[in-house]
Input
Amino acid sequence: MDIRQFIKENNLILDGATGTELQNVGLKVGELPERWNISHKDVLISLHKAYYDAGSNVVSANTFGANSLHYDDAELEEVISAAIENVKTARELSTGTQPKFIAADIGPTGKLLQPYGDLSFERAVEIFAKTVKLCVKYGAEIIFIQTMNDSYETKAAVIAAKENCDLPVFVSNAYGKNGKLMTGATPSAMSCMLEGLNVDAVGVNCSYGPDELSGVIDELLDCSSLPVIFMPNAGIPKNVNGKAVYDLAAEDFSESVAKAVKEGVRIVGGCCGTSPNYIKLLSEKIKGLPAKEIVPKGLTRISSYSHEVRCGNKTLVIGERINPTGKKRFKQALIDDDKSYILKEGVSQAECGADILDVNVGIPDIDEKTVLPETVANLQAVIDLPLQIDTSDFVAMEKAARLYNGKPLINSVNGKKESMDAVFPIAKKYGGAIIALTLDENGIPLTANGRLKIAEKILKEAEKYGIKKEDIIFDTLCMTVSSSPDAARVTLDALKLIKEKTDCRTSLGVSNVSFGLPDRETLNAEFLTLAMNYGLDMAIINPFSERVMKSVYAYSALTGKDVNFEKYIEFATRNAATAQKPATVSDNTEIGLKTAIIKGFTDEAAKSAARLLTDKAPLEVINEEIIPALDSVGKGYEEKTVYLPQLLMSAEAAKAAFGIIKEKSAVKSGTIKCDFVIATVHGDIHDIGKNIVKLLLENYGFNVIDLGKDVPPETIVDEVVKRHVPLCGLSALMTTTVPAMEKTVQLLKQRAPWCKVIVGGAVLTKEYADKMGADKYALDAMETVRYADKIFNEL
Amino acid sequence: MEYTVETKTYSGVPVNYGEAIRYAGAKAADENLYALIKSCIEECDKENAVNYAVCFAVLPVKVDGDAADFSAFTFKSKNLAYVLRGAKSALIFACTVGMGIDRLIKKYSELNPARALVFQALGAERVETFTDFFIKDYEKTFGIETSPRFSAGYGDLSLNAQKDIFNLLKPEKRLGLTLNDSLLMSPSKSVTAIAGINGLCQNDKSSCKDCTKKDCGYRR
Output
């Protein structure tokens, strides 16, 4: 019988624990359980058989930790083939008459993915792919990805499964006490991402007993259009005379799980602490229960590593600021690879109330195929908002969608055949919701009806790929009213018509409407209100525009969509607070730039620099105010009257002042001394120290080329050679990574003998540094600056 | 050999400002630094960035010369043997305050290094304070006394011991705590350690004086 067909009509019973059962019969600490597939074949067969006899439809092979991190290629194949063979034998021996299937059990690698761990996303995919291929080769019938507590690793495993077989894929995650994964995802966020990735069932296993996990199950049942899996532990382990005893008896366990089946859970089993007896009672209790119908939820939603964002109540704000169009400063940031500027744009938009961030890095001078995925990776590491991948470069789009940690919003597809042929496969494979522009080979229709026709064409084509209509969001294209006075009306009519006829969600890039006219914010805001009244679901706008954001919140408040005016009041309070925000120093007493920097007042330093620039040349401001202030703080630090945090706060303040100078004048080259390459060495992921050194060097006029952390020696040396850089700083925090530093120094000495190498970091000493041939051991950031200045003056 | 690994979560571990300031590399805090630390704590609270979780097991231990034999594994370390002397069993544990603080450190290391430094310091303070809090709670619950805690990488105990501790506790699954190829832990604000139970080594909480790294920047 086909398993996909079976789960459409029936409740499915899984097995119980394997790991804890093996420990009960002697599996030792640190012993790899999969080796037992060969050394204790009989134990495994009899356990699997007991589960089939107890009523399990699915028994998982003992392959939880069978991956290339734990086994070499030959042994991996042996343990996997034995694992599946054991279940096959058990199935043949079992007296159970129910349909019986064999699952490959894919557990986590035990490694955390980059950037917080050291396993790259693609390496994780590779590891899982190897296991999946072997499981398929030896006869697995389901790929069951289990116990993952990180959404990103889960995605890697699913992609590996999908790319290497057509078997049904079940995914169940391990949630913590707070009802979230260890890395932050809510059940609905996981459901959102996994449905997008086209898995066959989603759910929860391990960690706690059925009662503790009921909240997770409720959330999944509420949003999932797929069968929900539930395989809790037999309660929580208690230490009874040195033995782990799970506190929930089989009777209570099966009662609680059966209750979940009545509520709609379709696939059930047990995790740690459960045994064949638990499954026997469970299957008896479920036998008579009907399989509750799974109603498609039709939700339009996307997700980040932490939460889902759903179309529905209010118009969602897509922040448009990460986009170089018409933004000189942003273009410069892209060309300079200024990650912190882009990140700041993201963080600030989140603070201003954006629900989603648009990410567009398309300018002619950069390679989008590299920069877009990198930017997505940088943003998703620290910002919890879902991202909109905005590009017309399909290769860049696919790369970004692949390594996105969640379900992305893809911007955009349109009615052109070329566009649909390229975008739909990406969206289908990686599970994106798609913004669909109502234009095609013949341009943008001038009538609402014309745009509706294109929308219908897009929907028809999407259906061929199996893309659901709730994942298509129509943008009826807002043109500028200044060139065509009828434009706004047609756009709104099309919006209304398409919503009515297709029942799809809608989006608009609002700011276009006002192009070429004065006081654009007013036009944008009023147009947005009109569009919201026509049922607009998403608006691509500038969250920094208070005028426009006021419309967003006011509309929700006035139309009863903002329950108890919660959002509106929060917004209004936030605005009032910003307006009256007391400065650290009273605005009446204008403190000098020098004082502001010494005291570490960032805002005052920026303000003061702006004031000074009205009657002073930029270089004067730098030489008379900023440099003396930095020197004073630097000296204080060296004399131990100023401590590191104060030094950094001053450096921040100076940076803010420099930022104003950069913005208000073209002065840049005038202040640059020379290039300085900086990196944390291979194998080391600590970069706070390195970033501190970077900040100070920049303030002292060096052009710092920051290669990041965990950088291979070759990459560092290549950069130094390419630009003929005179100074290179290396950082290492761990004794274990000092050899990598030594290797880098040696390679630098060989290939870039002109370059002075400075080393530093917690474990280093001057002796170490001398031994490895570095030119300078710097105890701290100030010492690095002093040395770099000395070398620059000798150049 | 039978043992149980238990998992526990905590909340409301009080902040030790003095330690946070010390980890930030300052001897004292002026008003400005104090305000910065406060605002970082507020951001942690707002983001729910700190989640205290621990998993632990009690293992019998035999100390023989330089070797501490836990039957699941044996550690050769003079310093560890000294700390465990007289103890018949030991508490082995992994504490973490979770991923949230790593995210904040990463966020601000790009945006505002001063703030990143404070989050780094605060994270160190949080996990150290939490670890002490957990041990005290454990001592109270079971009416025992423990030795100073001793971690892999202290004195002559190789960082490689982390592998055995991870094999025993499986904190990957229980806490989402992982070990990377350089034997560093992620989330980074985590502590694994061993403490002797009812042995001869008293926990006088001034463990700096026994440490062999005399040039440590944080030495009290």
